[in-house]
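tool=predict chain=A
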Amino acid sequence: MSTSNDDKIIISNEASEALGRRIARGMEIPFTRVLKKFFTDGEIYHSFPDDISGRDVIIVGATHNDESLQELIDLIDGCHYYRARTVNVVVPYLGYSTMEQAKPDTNEIPKGITRTRQIFRARPDFVAFIDLHSEAVLHAHRGDVQTMHINTNNLIVDKIKELQLDNFVLVSPDYGRSKWVARLAGQLNAPHTAADKDRYAMDKTMVHQVASVVKDKVVIICDDMIRTGGSIIQTALRCREAGALDTILFATHLVLAGQSRQKFKENGIKKIIGADTYPGVESDDLLDIFSVAPLVVTALKRHLRSVR
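tool=predict ok
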């Protein structure tokens, strides 16, 4: 059984280096930065600075864009080429995760599944995902990859408790996430409700109403991710119309695409709490970021103890 930290090495794709370093500190292992260069014709050079033969390699890699996905796959294949003992992958944010199934009669490609399969086909021994939109992607392999879904519920509950709010309610922006929000509310001994949302185009939603339970309360709207912010802003506005005192947004993955930050400020959103899973997200006057590194460290230590 592998017990020595000398047998382990932590690397990342470029996008997830900051989180990789936090995980390395928690594991008490030096972070190893992969050498990366660009050729004039656009090809990318990678090199492991240390010998990885016979070692347990941990790769941290978000797949939020095509380049980061391909870099993660290159690193996995490179580990096999240099005969790493095991290849263990942490995907803090899985790109295309909302496209886990094709809608009938559309002929669309369910890229949440097909791209996750690309990771699995590179033959990692173990892959952990954080707060997946759908657990369907965990099964997009032939049974030859060990997978884990790490949820951040306890971190979220602790973060909400730190706010020291006396009179608050949790709100799901749609019924699809309501069971998850109900579990959080149960841990917090707080009321909860869900907004009535319809999707009428690929990136367009309409929130109709929320229950009166939000009246005279601070509303914490919880979701797994914020992409453009359209539906969660509408939910906040409906909550205010229903008598909410204030609205706080909470989501694990803060994509914040396009002009979303400006839209939040224009609509009176003063605080968004989220994790460090999406590359480049840091705390500032709008964002309050917590790290998933402690959860990942616990999961990796438990997994690697079982590796023989």
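DSSP finds eight helices and 15 strands in the chain. The domain at 5-151+293-305 is CATH 3.40.50.2020 (Rossmann fold).
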